[in-house]
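Structure in, sequence out. Go:
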């Protein structure tokens, strides 16, 4: 296996790897049909094995404090995507990608990584194993169909909300417990 910079010709493999990896998480419906591009510089690496993309990491980094990351001192990098193809999990690929991205980040005077994830315990434990610390959280709340009634409404005439994805930063999450989907979104940070 080699870890190398992402190339435009990797896009299909990148999308497949990310989609299959995310299907096993609380982000199962966050499907992309093309690779994201960033406003700021980014470290974009892939792990390749026998011509197949089996892992990826994308870290958008700051040239000016707090333009990408939500917290911290100095210049940081936001891990937007880190994924390992499920057929190749538990082989240390995610860890190798993280360390390779960190090496590049240090050369660019980046002093930390920030990553937001949902309430998948196995994902959170991986971040903790990689020496990230949980530093913040809020909630992702989805409303569908009858859940919308009386809770979410539009002020636009003749516009009817059917599905809504929201961020809730308050303290009374119990009011939404009857919803089918409520996820705690957690920020992890690793300084180096």
């Amino acid at each position: 296996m080699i870890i190398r910079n992402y190339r435009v010709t990797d896009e299909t493999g990148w999308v497949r790897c990310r989609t299959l990896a995310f299907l096993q998480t609380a982000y199962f419906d966050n499907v992309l049909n093309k690779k994201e591009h960033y406003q700021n510089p980014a470290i974009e690496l892939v792990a390749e094995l026998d011509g197949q993309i089996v892992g990826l990491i994308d870290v958008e980094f700051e040239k000016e404090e707090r333009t990408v990351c939500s917290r911290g001192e100095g210049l940081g990098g936001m891990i937007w995507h880190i994924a390992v193809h499920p057929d190749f999990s538990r082989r240390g690929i995610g860890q190798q990608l993280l360390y390779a991205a960190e090496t590049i980040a240090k050369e660019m005077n980046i002093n930390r990584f920030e990553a937001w994830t949902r309430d998948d315990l196995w994902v959170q434990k991986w971040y903790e194993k990689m020496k990230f610390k949980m530093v913040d959280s809020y909630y992702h709340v989805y409303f569908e169909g009858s859940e919308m009634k009386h809770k979410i409404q539009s002020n636009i005439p003749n516009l009817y909300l059917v599905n809504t994805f929201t961020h809730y930063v308050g303290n009374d999450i119990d009011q939404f417990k009857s919803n089918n989907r409520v996820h705690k979104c957690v920020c992890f940070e690793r300084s180096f």
